[in-house]
Design a protein that fits this description.
Layout: E1 15-21, E2 27-36, E3 41-50, E4 58-59, E5 66-71, E6 77-82, E7 122-127, E8 135-136, E9 146-149, E10 155-161, H1 165-175, E11 188-189, E12 193-194, E13 200-206, E14 212-220, E15 232-233, E16 238-243, E17 256-261, E18 268-269, E19 276-282, E20 288-294, E21 304-309, E22 320-321, E23 337-338, E24 343-349, E25 354-360, E26 367-368, E27 378-385, E28 388-395, E29 399-406, E30 416-417, H2 423-426, E31 433-440, E32 446-453, E33 464-470, H3 484-491, E34 495-500, H4 509-513, H5 521-537, E35 540-550, H6 552-561, E36 569-573, H7 579-582, H8 589-595, H9 603-608, E37 622-627, H10 635-647, E38 652-657, H11 667-683
Parallel strand pairs: 33-34, 33-35, 35-36, 36-37, 37-38
Antiparallel strand pairs: 1-2, 2-3, 3-4, 5-6, 6-7, 7-8, 9-10, 10-13, 11-12, 13-14, 15-16, 16-17, 17-18, 19-20, 20-21, 21-22, 23-24, 24-25, 25-26, 27-28, 28-29, 29-30, 31-32, 32-34
Helix pairs in contact: 5-6
Length: 693
């Protein structure tokens, strides 16, 4: 007998994050996020498992906040990023450094923050051959964001902020509560707050001694500098990274691909603008680089995999897309990886699924592989080492676990399961099945949705209440996967319905680009048409319909309730409702400029995509949520919508999570959010005896 999941079960859920396969393909390291209910914190630990499935994974790190695992070249060393207290080996014994406050060796230069602050993230290293605890490798004042081993494993390339003396004084004043002073156009970033002018550089660090040397020509600047330099060290001794060197770094999402020798000499630029480079990967010979290339002014254009040569005198050589003909965007599940001299594997979004494709490094001839994945489970993580590929496969009623594949095969052989992280929680749980629903919208365009159906679903005997849960983006997509939220709701008798509305990726450029510059009508049509399809099929009770969504999903929820009263209640979360007043208060203003134009030049276009303009049409009860420090969709947007509908007498509630960014982080808040949404729907459910209007 199965039992529904309860809210407290969230604390027992384990979630897989970063995945890294060792160079030999024999082991995989991965990060697991777990809840600490007493501290109300999410703990992250690194686990290691053999890729042949011969034994269960073991927990490698036992101090929290470990992430970004990376193997040394022979698989005997494993490094990771963590914000831990300073390594005791760096504290003991006498120091030869001066003892005055400004000398190297004080608390600040040791990589710790001012008194009362948390330590900065640094690189830590396990020597798995010798055993023992991890040791600290780096000591950067501002912490480390990215790193990669050199081919011989004796050095690392590290990305770290490096303030000037004047900038350091400013940062210290900021930490002491001083004023924020900004002259750059990109003035804030969600999760980071107000930005500054400090550059991030690449440093070459000696793994044994921790000594570092800055590569003066390898730095980041501009709007995308907060996204990192993405360093990669090739067997030819050269280091690849991305950077923008134009005149207006905060006006563009362009990022070019550069390489530089490990001693900082011979800088080469391999792309010539009009592209947003990410995730460079060297081939085994150190002669070519594969990378993700995005259109910097058109978010709806599929991100493609490019290949370019890095040879003396090759600067300016044109990079070639090897995936353009696929007309599918690269997924965030992992970077494109070399699996042979002339082949790559990469995860892509393909018709409401993240799947693998094999790419020819010399031609645009992509091939879909791993057919045994099916259409009801999606890839959420991907990594390659040797001949082994490891993916995290997520399934609506099986959970999410790691599986190993032969990276050289295309015949779809069965993957080997490596983990069973949530068997104790999910084995006897009443979990949903997921059905794909194809239908025509009001314009006659075919749209696809995903319906998560309760255990024992029987539309012949009853119609079900439906929660239409709408994805964000808009350039994203829903795929069949395990979701605690969806499993909780289906356990309470709801059908949960996702809609891959126009604008969603994974269906090609034309479908995604159809909403460019004109948000609202097409999305609302697709969502409403999909829910009407469920009603027509007899799956949904027309009187018990609810809608919610986060970020762009919240924006779309507001679009829908300005156009129809078919939903008994709605919950737009962390959304934007007045794009005209938003401009300059959020962190993605450059996106809106590319998509629509400047608000003082295109005022009507900005107002046309703002649901606040039609707030007089809203009759649906609204639960509006926001993060107190959300700079992607500022909380003032939620306040505008809430006050406007309350002024009109619409039943509404506002929930603001203090100090939260564009997410919901701590376990207690995650469960509070789910409880609030569920209570709101149940309160307005005419089919419940305890429901009330």
């Amino acid at each position: 007998m199965t039992v529904p999941l309860e809210l407290d079960d969230f604390y027992d859920l384990r979630r897989i994050r970063d995945v890294a396969v060792s160079p030999t393909g024999e082991r995989v390291a991965f990060v697991v996020a777990e809840s600490d209910p007493d501290a109300d914190e999410t703990r992250t630990s690194i686990f290691v498992a053999p890729t042949d499935g011969s034994r269960a994974p073991h927990r490698l790190t036992r101090a929290s906040d470990a992430g970004s695992p990376a193997w040394g070249p022979n698989g005997e060393k494993l490094a990771f990023l963590a914000s831990r207290d300073r390594d005791v080996a760096l504290e003991v014994g006498r120091s030869d450094e001066p003892a005055d406050e400004d000398a190297e060796g004080d608390d600040e230069s040791r990589g710790e923050s001012d008194e009362g602050d948390e330590p900065k993230p640094q690189v830590w290293l396990f020597d798995l051959a010798r055993g023992g605890d991890a040791r600290q490798v780096t000591e950067f004042d501002e912490g480390v964001r990215e790193f990669e081993f050199s081919p011989d494993g004796e050095r690392m390339v590290v990305a770290a902020r490096d303030p000037t003396d004047e900038q350091r004084e400013y940062l210290e004043r900021r930490r002491d509560g001083g004023p924020v002073e900004i002259t750059r156009l990109q003035h804030k970033r969600d999760g980071m707050g107000f930005l500054d002018d400090v550059r991030s550089y690449l440093f070459v660090v000696d793994v044994a001694t921790g000594e570092s040397e800055r590569l003066d020509d390898a730095y980041a600047r501009g709007a995308m500098s907060t996204g990192g330099l993405h360093p990669a060290w090739g067997t030819n001794g050269r280091i690849a990274f991305r950077s923008y060197r134009g005149e207006k770094p905060d006006h563009t999402f362009e990022q070019d691909l550069y390489t530089v020798s490990a001693d900082g000499e011979d800088l080469r630029r391999l792309t010539d603008g009009d592209i947003g480079v990410a995730n460079p990967r060297w081939d085994a010979a150190g002669e070519r680089l594969a990378f993700d290339g995005a259109n910097p002014t058109n978010t709806y254009h599929p991100t493609e995999v490019y290949v370019v040569a890095d040879a003396e005198g090759s600067e300016g050589t044109e990079a070639r897309s090897v995936s353009a003909s696929l007309d599918r965007t690269r997924s965030r599940a992992g970077a494109p990886e070399w699996v042979g001299d002339d082949e790559l594997l990469a995860p892509v979004g393909d018709e409401a699924l993240t799947r693998l494709v094999r790419l020819d490094a010399e031609a645009d001839d992509p091939e879909r592989v791993f057919e045994n994945q099916g259409t009801d489970r999606t890839i959420t993580q991907f990594s390659v080492g040797g001949d082994c590929a490891v993916v995290c496969l997520s399934h609506p009623n099986e959970g999410a676990d790691l599986y190993a594949l032969d990276a050289t095969e295309s015949d779809g052989s069965d993957p080997a399961r490596l983990t069973r992280l949530n068997d104790g929680l999910l084995t006897d749980a009443a979990l949903p099945t997921c059905e794909r629903v194809q239908y025509e919208n009001g314009d006659g365009v075919e749209v696809e949705g995903l319906a998560y159906l309760p255990d024992g679903f029987d539309p012949d005997s009853e119609s079900y209440p439906v929660i239409a849960h709408i994805h964000g983006g808009p350039t994203a997509y829903d795929a069949p996967e395990f979701s605690f939220d969806y499993s909780y709701w289906t356990g309470r008798g709801y059908v949960v319905f996702n809609v891959n509305y126009r604008g969603s990726t994974s269906y090609g450029r034309e479908f995604s680009e159809s909403i460019r510059g004109e948000w609202g009508p097409r999305k609302a049509d697709d969502i409403v048409s999909g829910v009407e399809e469920l009603v027509d099929r007899g799956w949904a009770d027309a009187d018990r319909l609810f809608i919610s969504g986060f970020s762009q999903g919240g924006i779309n929820t507001a679009y829908v309730v300005t156009r129809t009263d078919m939903f008994a209640a709605a919950a737009p979360e962390h959304g934007i409702y007045d794009f005209y007043s938003l401009f300059g208060t959020a962190d993605l203003h450059q996106w809106y400029v590319h998509d629509i134009g400047l608000p003082w030049e295109k005022p009507e276009e900005y107002r046309a995509i703002s649901s606040i303009r039609d707030v007089g049409e809203i009759e649906t009860p609204l639960l509006v949520t926001a993060g107190g420090e959300d700079w992607r969709c500022p909380p003032s947007q939620a306040e505008q919508l809430y006050v406007s509908v309350r002024r009109r007498g619409v039943d509404a509630k506002l929930v603001v999570y203090p100090d939260e960014h564009h997410n919901i982080g701590d376990p207690q808040r995650a469960t509070h959010r789910l409880r609030e949404l569920t209570d709101w729907f149940e309160r307005h459910d005419p089919g419940r005896e305890d429901g009330s209007e």
